[in-house]
Amino acid sequence: MALGFGGYFKVLFNIPIITSAFVLIIALSFLLFWGIKESARFAIVATLIETFGLIIIIFIGVPYLGKVDYFEMPLGMAGIFQASALVFFAYTGFESIVKLSEETKSPEKQFQRD
């Protein structure tokens, strides 16, 4: 995941992939060590950004509804495996947020606090 982030970061800012992946891992590690409340807030903000991005993609794609052959696979089976990997990592990411409350002492109290 960090290498994927590094690839995007290289395109945007021309920073080497390994360097940006390493910085991401270190930054997120410090966030996790900082505290559960801060990690949860970061997860909320990241989810809101992701949701906003998906809404933009939906609005861009609405004019093309019915004009695309959905069974055409330009990348063939390799594209299917790549998409499957993305779905798998997205699923495990959401699952880890849900499990977060199981690992917290008195989650009802912790997650209702401001």
Strands, helices and their partners?
Layout lengths: L1 H12 L3 H18 L1 H26 L14 H25 L6 H5 L3
Helix pairs in contact: 1-2
What's this entry about, in short?
The chain is mainly alpha-helical. It has helices at about 1-15, 15-35, 35-60, 75-100, 105-110.
Q: What brief labels describe this structure?
A:
single chain, 114 residues, mainly alpha, 5 helices, 75% helix, extended
Describe it for me?
This protein has 114 residues and is mostly helical. It contains five helices and no strands. The model has no long low-confidence stretch (mean pLDDT 82).
Strand content: under 5%
Let me know the number of strands: 0
Number of helical regions: 5
Question: What's the order of the H and E elements?
Answer: HHHHH
Low-confidence runs (pLDDT<50, min 5 residues)?
none
Sheet having the most strands:
none
Report the structural category. Answer: mainly alpha
